[in-house]
Each structure stands twice: as structure tokens, then as C-alpha cells.
């Protein structure tokens, strides 16, 4: 497995409309900060900044149900050689805790934990003037500095970690109190770190994780292939054509997901596609993909910035698709990537309303449907022409006591490298006789 495949989706909140996340105290400004940090203006601004960050970090219990809040601190490394590995492991831990822990809870993949954006955590460390880059596994932050940081973060749980050789060590803090430490050996670069990350997080936090099905489609049986060709496609608007006929040119069955943004995708012209802003998800004429052999109809276009590629990633998720539990299906989609890595997730949901899902919300899918299944298609990288990705799946819950799977949502998620990527002909067909 290559180094870039180590990175896992973390979908951290990085909403550009929030002033806190656009504040000037980023790593690129550290030199400027050091030059003027003694001025009263900067001191005043830092205090105001910290107050705003701390306020943003805490959920408002009066306006929303409380989810366990979590922060993952930048991991330390024993040497510059280990630093990239430490960064990748922090990325992996962040993604696992915010997206996959305890089965997730649907609605674009959000999990049990409300995780503070990694970039925001780094901004707080910078504003506190903590010398984080100087710390190592053998020279950890002093108690005063650590308590100051934990107090400012103001979250329920914080994970601090470090990498030494190929050993990952994590510490869990409940509030400001150290509650547990765990370690695990990181496998070689040729192997996936998923099992190691899940093992240490289960030991550290008690979280459980769905086992991802990575088996690709088997095309060796002619009977199955004939069945796939004949069966109806269960995906609404699989080729992104309905927006062209809609008065508002919106595809209601497909939603862009980026941090807190969850909006239906809009059709634009080929000319507009050339100048569409970064971190956009739109429907475009297929000619905009640049493959001269395929220009008819429309397709989905996702344009991703370097910042989002290396942090949140960008996603487009389908509407709810009714399915039968423990029944074989085949998923397929065609893609053309000019940069981003496609990492597609097939998510299964069961009916389980929580205490907030009654009354007016009893018919709200977001309040009554929870994720209990997930299959991940092997990542696909940049290519030069349209190719098909497919996978056979059998949606069933992680545990027999969990609700049966009644709906699927297809999550077209991209990350790692900025640029444009296109999708078309999204398919889900029932394959059992």
C-alpha cells in the first residue's frame, strides 16, 4: 500500500463561512506573529480569538442534542523521519472517531462524536503560543501547558498521541483528566493501518467499528452477469439527467456534503464549469470532462481545493434507496479523475429513532435512520478516460441485535489530491435470484 493510501477520510468541520476558521493565526503566519506578539493589539486580539474558539468548540445543549465532543491533538514524532507517519496516523484516528465509531449515525457519515476541526485545534495551540513543534515522545508537554490547552478546548474527550519508530501511543483525556493510555504497532507501508487504528481506539475508548467489505465484483459467472444486465437500477437519477428538466435545475436526489454544508446539486453549463469555484459539486454537460469519446448527456463534477483534499475531503451522497436486508446487490459507477482519489462508501441504515426522533420528527429520516453497515470500495486514483468501479455487497447489520438494513445511501467521496473528478451511471441492482 502506498503512502498516500494511508490517509483516511476525516471530514472535519472546515466551513469557510465561519469567521473563526478564517482567522489569521495559521501556521503560515507564525513568523509574523512572533514579530508582533508583544504588542497590546495582538494580545487583545489573541484573547478575543481564544474566547471565540472556546465558545465555538462547545455544543449548545439548549439548542441541540448533546453528542460527545472530541479533539485530536497534533501527534508528536521521535524524528523528522517519523513526522509524516505521525501526521497520517492523526488523520486516521480523526476520521475513525468522527465518521466510523459505533457505526456512525447517517446523514452524510457523521458518527457518534462531534469532533473539533483539526485545523481549529492547531489554531488554538498557535494562539496559546505553545511550542508544539518542539515536543517529542521523550519530551511531552508539561502539565501546565497541557491543562491550559485542555481547558481552552473545552471538549468532553481529547486524544493526544505520538509515533516512535512504528509504535503508535495514544492518551485519552476525559475533560482535563488522563483516563487511559494504549499502544499498537503500525504495520508496514504495504499494509493497511485500519486494523491497528481500530484496535487501539477500541482499547482506548471502547468504540466499535463496522468491518468494511473490500471484495470487488466477481464477473466470472455468466448467469450473474446476465442478471445484472437485466435487473432494474434502484438509484434515482443515476445519470444526473433530471436537473435539466427541473425548473430550478436542481438534482434533489444528490446532495453535496462538506462540513456542515448539505445541499442539493445544481446543473450548470459547460462554460460555467470552467470557472466554477473550488470545493464545488455540480452537474455539467459530459463534454466538460474532456473525454472526446464521451460527450453526450450530463455527469457529476466535483472540483476540490488542496486544503479540502488534505483535510475534509469532498462528498456527494445519494438519497435514501430502499433495500432488502441480507440480500446481495451490485454497485457500479463510472469515473474520470484529473487528480482526486475516489474513495466510495456504500452505507446501510436501519430504523432506530432516538429520544429526539419522536413527535414531529418521527417521519424525518435523519432522526430515525441510523447507519449500521458500511462497505468501502478500494480507492481509485487519477486516470485518463472513463472507467467503471463496481463491487458486490450484502447489506447486513454489524451485530444480530442491531436493526435490519432497510436503506442504502451511496457516498461518492474524494480526497487526497486537488483537482476535478467526474462521475456518471451510478448503479445499484439486486442480484439475488
Describe how the helices and strands are arranged.
Blueprint: H1 30-36, H2 40-57, E1 68-72, E2 76-77, H3 83-100, E3 113-115, H4 118-127, H5 143-153, E4 157-164, E5 167-174, E6 177-185, H6 194-205, H7 222-230, H8 242-245, E7 250-258, E8 261-267, H9 270-274, E9 280-285, E10 298-304, H10 306-309, E11 314-318, E12 321-322, E13 329-337, E14 341-351, H11 365-368, E15 369-376, E16 387-393, E17 407-415, E18 419-430
Parallel strand pairs: 1-3, 1-4, 2-4, 8-9
Antiparallel strand pairs: 4-5, 5-6, 7-8, 7-11, 9-10, 10-18, 11-17, 12-17, 13-16, 13-18, 14-15, 14-17
Rg:
23 Å
Structural class: alpha+beta
Morphology call: globular
Report on the biggest sheet: 12 strands, mixed
What's the β-strand tally?
Answer: 18
Give the overall average pLDDT: 82
Strand composition percent: 25-35%
Report on this model:
This protein is an alpha+beta fold. It is built from 11 helices and 18 strands. Strands 7, 8, 9, 10, 11, 12, 13, 14, 15, 16, 17 and 18 form a 12-stranded mixed beta sheet that branches. A hairpin with a 2-residue loop joins strand 4 (157-164) and strand 5. Helix 3 crosses helix 6 (194-205). It is globular, with a radius of gyration of 23 Å. Residues 1-64 and 103-110 have low confidence and may be disordered.
Amino acid at each position: 500500500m502506498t503512502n498516500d493510501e494511508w490517509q483516511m477520510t476525516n471530514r472535519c468541520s472546515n466551513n469557510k463561512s465561519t469567521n473563526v476558521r478564517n482567522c489569521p493565526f495559521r501556521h503560515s503566519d507564525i513568523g509574523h506573529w512572533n514579530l508582533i506578539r508583544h504588542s497590546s493589539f495582538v494580545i487583545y486580539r489573541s484573547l478575543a480569538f481564544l474566547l471565540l474558539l472556546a465558545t465555538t468548540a462547545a455544543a449548545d445543549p439548549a439548542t441541540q442534542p448533546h453528542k460527545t465532543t472530541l479533539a485530536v491533538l497534533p501527534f508528536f514524532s521521535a524524528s523528522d523521519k517519523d513526522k509524516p507517519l505521525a501526521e497520517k496516523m492523526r488523520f486516521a484516528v480523526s476520521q475513525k472517531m468522527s465518521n466510523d465509531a459505533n457505526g456512525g449515525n447517517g446523514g452524510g457519515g457523521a458518527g457518534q462524536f462531534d469532533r473539533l476541526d483539526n485545523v481549529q485545534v492547531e489554531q488554538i495551540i498557535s494562539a496559546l503560543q505553545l511550542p508544539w513543534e518542539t515536543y517529542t515522545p521523550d519530551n511531552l508537554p508539561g502539565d501546565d501547558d497541557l491543562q491550559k490547552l485542555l481547558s481552552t478546548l473545552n471538549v468532553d474527550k481529547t486524544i493526544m498521541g505520538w509515533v516512535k519508530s512504528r509504535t503508535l501511543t495514544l492518551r485519552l483525556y476525559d475533560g482535563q483528566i488522563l483516563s487511559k493510555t494504549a499502544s499498537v504497532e503500525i504495520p508496514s507501508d504495504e499494509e493497511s493501518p485500519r486494523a491497528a487504528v481500530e484496535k487501539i481506539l477500541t482499547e482506548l475508548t471502547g468504540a466499535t467499528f463496522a468491518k468494511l467489505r473490500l471484495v470487488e465484483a466477481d464477473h466470472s459467472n455468466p448467469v450473474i452477469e446476465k442478471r445484472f444486465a437485466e435487473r432494474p437500477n434502484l438509484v434515482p437519477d443515476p445519470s444526473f439527467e433530471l436537473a435539466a428538466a427541473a425548473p430550478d435545475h436542481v438534482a434533489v436526489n444528490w446532495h453535496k456534503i462538506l462540513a456542515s454544508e448539505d445541499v442539493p446539486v445544481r446543473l450548470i453549463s459547460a462554460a460555467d464549469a470552467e470557472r466554477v469555484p473550488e470545493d464545488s459539486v455540480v452537474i455539467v454537460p459530459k463534454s466538460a470532462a474532456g473525454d472526446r469519446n464521451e460527450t453526450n448527456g450530463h455527469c457529476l463534477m466535483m472540483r476540490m481545493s488542496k486544503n479540502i483534499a488534505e483535510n475534509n475531503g469532498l462528498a456527494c451522497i445519494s438519497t435514501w434507496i430502499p433495500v432488502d436486508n441480507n440480500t446481495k446487490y451490485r454497485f457500479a459507477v463510472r469515473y474520470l479523475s484529473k487528480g482526486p482519489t475516489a474513495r466510495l462508501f456504500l452505507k446501510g441504515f436501519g430504523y432506530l429513532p432516538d429520544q429526539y426522533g419522536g413527535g414531529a420528527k418521527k417521519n424525518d429520516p435523519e432522526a430515525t435512520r441510523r447507519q449500521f453497515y458500511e462497505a468501502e470500495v478500494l480507492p481509485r486514483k487519477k486516470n485518463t478516460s472513463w472507467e467503471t468501479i463496481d463491487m458486490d455487497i450484502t447489506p447486513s447489520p454489524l451485530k444480530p441485535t442491531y436493526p435490519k438494513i432497510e436503506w442504502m445511501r451511496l457516498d461518492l467521496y474524494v480526497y487526497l489530491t486537488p483537482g476535478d473528478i467526474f462521475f456518471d451511471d451510478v448503479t445499484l441492482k439486486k442480484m439475488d435470484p
